[in-house]
Amino acid sequence: MTPLILLVGFLGAGKTTYLRQLLPQLRAQGVDPHVIINDYQNARVDAELLRELTDSVVPISGSCVCCGSREELLGALETFAHAPGRAVVIETNGTTDSEELIELLSLEPTLERFTQPIQLSVIDGHRWQKRFWHNSLELDQATTASFLFIARADEIDANRRARLEESIEHHGIHATPADPETFAREIAGIVAAVRDLPDRDAVAHEAGCACGHHGDGDHEQHHHHEEPAHDHSAHHFASLQIDLPPTVARGTIIAFLDGLPPEVIRVKGLARLADSPEEYHVFQKVDSSAVQWLPIGRTSRLSHPLAVLIGPGIEADAIRARAAELFAGEPAQAAS
Questions:
Q1: CB distance 179 to 296 below 8 Å
Q2: CA 59 to chain centre
Q3: Is the whole model's pTM more than 0.85, yes or no?
Q4: CATH class, 4-189 region
């Protein structure tokens, strides 16, 4: 498998500068980085700035890869040449809806040889939450992050730094701080952990899937190697896949979703329900809202029922254990 890294941040936050510092660090860690860069007008210009740092850069000029340019992004990923030691870093444009992008990449069945997306957000220490009507977008881009970097931190005084940290804590941003060197080590550890796994299903079963089957590992991205550089059992990923039973009671899924921790900000998935087993249903839940259901017919592009959880600070082991307990014995009788 190949790690799929998202580099997200508002316009002018410092993403390209961060990426230029990250790429040599990845090389130093033995990682071969492939870069996809998205911007409205100057993606090719930014790509030229990176060519001295990596042999593989794909520019996508135009609208956000989460919406208007999504087919170009998917095409670039579907034709990617997977090989041991490689990682893909997507630098998104400044107005990307990171939650929508994570959902797209997590559920696209043609990308099963990539890990679930791992997001780092870059925020501008000077301008954080000074975007007027764009504050909510900037906040959303940070809320979904697994890792966080504060750009221009050396240019702000102690009072501004204190207010910035208070704001991050107040908004429930759980991302782990990561400068380019630290993040490169994290990526290198993930590259080593997943290199021998063929696809996302193998990752799920390596960790022990929710249906009660158990592998040798103890985490979504943890694989047994003799001398790992780090303990990656505590990674906080932007998304987590839970395999569901072939048929499941509607009430069981609702109980599972209602019991998720607040760090999970959105869930979307596919299920075949016990009360209507002849067709598949897509379901989703955002924060504390009610579960939404949409029947899609007798077939699906996804290979099997699953749920994708989006949000940082996801404790994979605890969630998988609860899912295994709830879904044990399914298929079950329809909920009353």
A1: no
A2: 21
A3: no
A4: alpha beta
